[in-house]
Amino acid sequence: MPYEFTVGGRIAKPVAEVFEAVADPQKLSGYFTTGGAQGRLETGAMVTWDFHDFPGAFPVEVVEVVTNEKIVLRWEAATGGFTMVTMTFADTGDGRTLVRIHEAGWGDTPADEKAAFGNCEGWTGMLCAMKVFVEHGINLRQGFYK
Fold first, then answer.
1. Which uninterrupted H or E stretch holds 129?
2. Residue 52 has what pLDDT?
């Protein structure tokens, strides 16, 4: 059975602000892409993300963007092939936003299992860093990897 996962968390800000924290490359670079993000997440765009813990910018295909609702990304998996990442943003009714990140498309080999678990860890870290950045303006990842 191929590997896939979903992680999620609540951020105490309105949906539009949380969505922009992902779609805007300057904001995304403030807490997630330790080496920087280039290009706004818009349907059909090809952007690049760079990380100190995985050096070398890599391409991210933006498959679909529905403002304040969903972002779908596609990129090459570490084990070959491609994975799809779907981020959803939902108003919880109490001033917070529920963000869910689902990644699918991994194979069923031990290498795919290891890579999927690594990405699951990465997306969980991204959500934690985004929460602290959006709510308090603190970059948790600064100095963490380099």
1. helix 110-136
2. 76
Under 8 Å between Cβ of 98 and 92: yes
Closest C-alpha among 40, 105, 42 to residue 70:
42
Given a cut of 80, whether residue 84 has pLDDT beyond it is: yes
Burial grade of 26 (CB within 10 A; 0-12, 13-18, 19 or more): exposed
Which tokens sit at 86? 């779907």
Residue 79's pLDDT is 86
Is there a contact between 129 and 32 (Cβ–Cβ < 8 Å)? Answer: yes
SS3 46: strand
Q: How far is it, in rounded angstroms, from Cα 90 to Cα 54?
A: 30
